[in-house]
Every structure is written in structure tokens, then in C-alpha cells.
Amino acid sequence: MKEKIKSDYTSWLIIIGIVMLFLEFTFFNSGLIFSLLVQVGMIYIGSKRMSKKLGKLLFWGGIVFLVISVLSMLTFRFLLLAILIHFLIQYSQTKKNPIQIKPVIDLSKNPVKDENLVKKKPLITNVFFGKQKTPQAVYEWNDINIQAGLGDTVIDLSYTVLPKGETIIFIRNIVGNIEVLVPYDMEVYVNHTSFAGTARILDLQDEKMFNQSLQLHTADYENAHQKVKIVSSMFAGNIEVKRV
């Protein structure tokens, strides 16, 4: 019953949000859709010309104006308020009727043993702003799983010895560029998602991306004993995977 109410609540919230968005674009702020298209266009064109000063100006200007436009939308404020009210209601109900879980454990069949956990220091940590990269000297490899805000990420695999099996690189980014340098004898799999940007992956050059996903791998990836899997997602920016 609670799951049905929650599902109905979510459905009504989505319907009301769509209706409000339509009314805002049609009656209250008809010029907003044009502004959003211009800002997205600025981001897209700027991402293609990041090497030039004008490209950087268009890119970051589009980001700033797009954020301001979204924050000023009545629909966004309504959804934010609805989500806040929803969490307050859920928190209040949890306090009134806390969920009690009482596990039944048969110690005679499964005797409790102390586990020795080894904590490893990550190569790259989560950052909101700034460029980060792997060391420019020999280093010990650990799989990478990070999320970043605004900035570039560079991962050079030529300075480390990768273990047998599948090496994982998982990066979530808002705005910025990702560069991964892979040894020539290494098989590669890439799963990349981007709202706006380009992809340069091995022999694939300047693949234009606009709200789409890209999946590809080298021919012998499935049977390789040593391989690299790269999974990345970003709002805007470029990804480059090349041999070193």
C-alpha cells in the first residue's frame, strides 16, 4: 500500500512538473526556451574551441547563464519545494513509526569470525574544482572510482604495473575533460555518456556527442588476460583515450 502511494505521488509530481513547465514556457516566460537554447549552444560551441580564449569564454559563460536560468524557473522552485516537503513527511513518519529489524542468527551454524580489513589509499580523490592526475613517477595501481565537479582528470597508465584481469576506471564529472593514456599492448573498453562534448578514443576521432552514450572496445577485449574498462559520464566536456 505504501509503495503504491509513493508511486502515485511520484507520478503526480512528474505530471504537475510537466504541466507547470509547459505553462511557464507558453504564458509566463515565453522567451525562456530561446534563452536555454542559446546557452546550450554556447556550451556546445565553446567545448569545441576550448583551446582558444573565445571558446573558453563561450563555454563558461554558457554554464553560468544556464545555471542562472534554471534556478530562476518557477518549475524548478516548485520541484525543489515538493522534494523538500516529501522528505520532511517521510522523516516525520519514520520518527512516528520506526522500522525495527530483528535478525535471527544461528551462531552454531555460522560462528562469528573477526575479519581483517585492509584500507587502501586511493590514487585520486573526489574534488569539486581543479585539475587532478596520477603521479608522474612509478606508482602502485588501485582501481579508480571518483566524482568531480569542474576540472580536468588525467590518468596515465604507463607509470604503473596493472594486475591481471580487468582494471576499472570509473569517473563522474560535471564539466571538464578526461584523458586516459593506455599502453599499446592493453585491450580497452569505453562506456561514455555526455550531454555536450566530443570523444577521441583510439582510432575514433572527434565524435560529436549531444545527450548520448558511446560504447566500444578493442577487438580482443573479451578474451584478454589484461584489460582496462573505462566508464565515464559528464554534463559537458571532452574525453580522450590514446596509446602511449
Automatic annotation (TrEMBL):
Domain Cell wall-active antibiotics response LiaF-like C-terminal: residue ranges:
128-241
Please name the InterPro entries in this protein's record: Cell_wall_LiaF, LiaF-like_C, LiaF_C
Protein name in UniProt: Cell wall-active antibiotics response protein
Alphabetized, the UniProt keywords read: Membrane, Transmembrane, Transmembrane helix
What organism, scientifically named, is this protein from? Cytobacillus gottheilii
Q: Where are the transmembrane segments?
A: 12-45, 57-89
This protein's source sits in the domain of life called: Bacteria
